[in-house]
Specification:
about 750 residues; alpha/beta; 4-stranded antiparallel beta sheet; about 55% helix; about 10% strand; elongated
Length: about 750
């Protein structure tokens, strides 16, 4: 439902304030008592009263439907039994093999088992009744856990109280039997499956053992297990020796270019030096291979090696070379001493030089011998390495064959061991199940037996009819407020500002007019003390207050659609201003359907159209209405192009004359949404006022009307809500604050609302 709005503040004189402060809501809404908004409550009440017949129809229809439903229902009875779920002796962890579920999940699972078709069918069989009879009496079963406990309630609803109690007890008994059979069947099925698995594994083990025995016989595995893989050991030894020779050869080859460029002394020193051999020592791991056989792949280098140096091949005699070197040093020392006192041709000096040459020749012979022996040793190492490689290739095939045989033997033996372990595990599991079968993990007991209840649960006639009546009232209220929500009309003064963005000028209440004499529609014919007359005075007061800030001489009265009371409002507003002593000219500007002259009983054949077409002067078309200070200009003959006539200079000349001769010039214009000349008129006026039929004109239409006028440059000063029925729902507040608006102007003939 739309948000209800608050009524405007009222000035002490009864005039609705036109200032912005008047639109501000009061700090405390009128009618609010202790935080309770009585205004809204009353408005809701009046909305309901307005369409109370809808609530009455829905209420009666709901009662009728409720009575029919109750009369067709058969009495329904129920009975309940309660079972308790408890834990029995718990299985040890090594026997259960799995963790238990939480107790809450367990109860929910058991509830669903009780609701299963298997348990319910078993309970039906226990009834010893025909299926069609059970189906006729049975309605439904309700199974639910009681609170957070481990107790489960089983309720059965049927047409017979004895049947309900018996069936509820049978469901509980059927569930207990189902659980027992499930436990026994589970143990039996598990034992049978495990025995089948054990037989299958036993057969596989027998075949695997037979294959292992046959394989041993075919490859003489008994001997192989005792002596190990001889070929593998030989291959490992050959690999070590080949590696040692390769290392020695590589060292000599790297040493050879260095010796060729070194001096004799360096060569002899190098070849006669004693260094630790750098040959790697390969040691097979203990217990390698089957039966102690050597695994060549397990041979490893030592963790650390000695410092790099030349290998002692005994190519130079260290003692002889050292003696020659010492002798040469002695001779050179003696030669230096002799030359200090003797000349080179002295026999002693010549003798020393001759001895040195002899020693050098001996040293050269030692160098040549050592070098030749070095190259011979290098060649010998190459031959040894080559021969060992050939021998190794001869043993390779035999070593590989032996390795494959032993690998296959290991695979067969591992299969036998695996099957033996698996068979032992299966038999151990069978023994555990035999032990667990005697332990009851869950215990179910009936703690409350169902007894017949002879008071039916349905139908409860009074409650059902009362509920149907409430539903009918609720449906009626929903329809009423739904229709109120769908009402798109402007109904309240506050909606003028919120929806249209315009100032609210005033309210014109509805009246019962007579169609036999339209002159009675004039304000001058209405009781001056009536609420209708007072309403026009309030509108007049609001408009006159605008003159204090700006001078408004020409006013256009228009509306969105035809028959919104625009003409009546224009007439009576003009009369109200004339009664205030102002000279007022009322111009019928609706050049398509203008009828203002009929209200005064004047001629309409000569008027505004003649002035605009240039066929008459303004003074010649003005008529006296009989109301003091009020003159009128009729439409004249209806032209075919009223919009074009409004744009002519003659219209502006007419307006200038009217402004000079009268205090107020009120134009009764055509509807905005119907014709186009309203936009032209509004742009030429000092002020434009929109008349809206309260509770009928659509908001969207009003918004489009205001937008259209604003786009054409109109100055819209506000909106008047016309034909407001204070007796209608929704306007109760205004009937309270403007009680004098309840104008009831009746005639002897049948009244017609306009």
């Amino acid at each position: 439902m739309k948000e209800m709005i608050q009524p405007p503040n009222e000035s002490p004189t009864g005039v609705v304030p036109s200032s912005a402060a008047a639109a501000a809501p009061p700090s405390v809404p009128p009618g609010a008592v202790g935080g309770l908004d009585l205004v809204k409550l009353k408005q809701y009440l009046h909305i309901v009263v307005r369409r109370i017949w809808v609530v009455a129809i829905c209420f009666v229809a709901a009662l009728l439907i409720g009575v029919l439903q109750v009369s067709k229902q058969e009495p329904l009875y129920n009975a309940s039994s309660v079972i308790l779920l408890t834990r029995g002796s718990q299985l040890p962890a090594q026997l259960s093999g799995v963790e238990h579920n939480t107790f809450g999940d367990f109860v929910d699972t058991q509830t669903r088992i009780i609701q299963s078709r298997a348990v319910l069918q078993r309970a039906r069989e226990k009834m010893n009744m025909p299926d069609h009879e059970i189906s006729r009496l049975f309605r439904r079963s309700i199974i639910w856990p009681i609170g957070k406990s481990s107790a489960i309630s089983i309720t059965v609803e049927s047409l017979d109280p004895e049947f309900s109690a018996q069936f509820a007890n049978n469901i509980a008994q059927a569930y207990i039997e189902f659980k027992e059979e499930e436990r026994v069947a589970l143990s039996q099925n598990t034992s049978i499956n495990l025995m089948q698995q054990a037989n299958r594994i036993r057969e596989e083990l027998r075949k695997a053992e037979e294959q292992l025995v046959v394989y041993k016989k075919e490859h003489s595995m008994v001997l192989t297990e005792r002596e190990g893989n001889i070929a593998a050991g030989i291959m490992a030894d050959l690999a070590r020796r080949t590696a040692a020779h390769r290392l020695e050869r590589m060292v000599l080859e790297l040493q050879r270019p260095l010796l060729s460029d070194a001096s004799d002394e360096v060569v002899l020193t190098a070849l006669s030096s004693r260094y630790v051999s750098m040959a790697p020592v390969f040691q097979p791991p203990a217990g390698a291979g089957v039966g102690g056989a050597v695994d060549p792949s397990a041979a490893t280098l030592p963790v650390s090696t000695p410092a790099m140096g030349f290998i002692d091949f005994d190519t130079a005699a260290a003692a002889e070379w050292s003696a020659l070197r010492r002798q040469k040093n002695i001779l050179e020392h003696e030669l230096r001493a002799a030359r200090e006192n003797l000349r080179d041709n002295h026999p002693t000096v010549r003798k020393l030089l001759q001895d040195i040459r002899i020693v050098d020749a001996a040293i050269n012979r030692e160098v040549q011998y050592a070098t030749e022996k070095f190259y011979a040793e290098l060649e010998a190492l190459t031959l040894k390495e080559t021969s060992l490689a050939r021998v190794k290739s001869l043993w390779l095939d035999e070593a590989m064959d032996t390795e494959l045989v032993m690998d296959r033997f290991e695979i067969l033996r591992n299969d036998v061991d695996r099957l033996r372990r698996l068979l032992d595990a299966v038999f151990a599991r069978i023994r555990e199940i035999d032990i667990a079968s005697g332990i009851i993990p869950d215990n179910v007991s009936i703690i409350e037996v169902a007894t017949p209840r002879h008071n039916p649960i349905t139908p409860r006639k009074i409650q059902s009819i009362f509920l149907a009546g409430l539903l009918g009232i609720g449906l009626g209220l929903g329809i009423i407020f739904g229709l109120d929500f769908l009402d798109d009309s402007i109904r309240y003064p506050e909606e003028v500002g919120k929806t249209l963005g315009l100032r609210f000028i005033g309210i014109i209440p509805s009246a019962n007019w007579s169609l036999s004499d339209i002159r009675t529609h004039l304000l001058s014919q209405v009781d001056p003390k009536s609420g209708l007359a007072e309403a026009y005075r309030n509108v007049r007061a609001t408009l006159l207050l605008d003159d204090q800030t700006r001078k408004v001489r020409t006013i256009l009265m228009t509306s969105a659609l035809p028959r919104e009371g625009k003409t009546t409002t224009s007439l009576n507003l003009a009369i109200s201003m004339a009664q205030a002593g102002m000279r007022v000219l009322l111009v019928d500007a609706d050049l398509r359907r203008g009828e203002i002259h009929k209200y005064f009983g004047l001629e309409g054949g000569r008027g505004l159209a003649d002035v605009l077409s240039g066929q008459a002067k303004a003074e010649s078309v003005i008529q006296r209405t009989g109301v003091p200070n009020l003159d009128m200009v009729a439409t004249g003959p209806f032209p075919s192009n009223p919009a074009e006539l409004m744009l002519r200079q003659e219209f502006r000349t007419f307006m200038d004359y009217a402004k000079r001769a009268y205090d107020k010039v009120i134009f009764d214009g055509p509807p905005v949404m119907a014709v186009s000349e309203s936009g032209v008129l509004s742009s030429l006026m000092d002020s434009t006022i929109v008349v809206v039929w309260a509770g009928k004109t659509s908001r969207k239409v009003c918004q489009i009307t205001v937008q259209s006028l604003q786009q054409r440059g109109a100055r819209i000063d506000g909106c008047i809500l016309n034909n407001l029925e204070f007796g209608r729902v929704g306007y109760y507040y205004y009937s309270t604050y403007y009680g004098y608006y309840t104008y009831d102007y009746r005639y002897d003939d049948s009244p017609v609302k306009t």
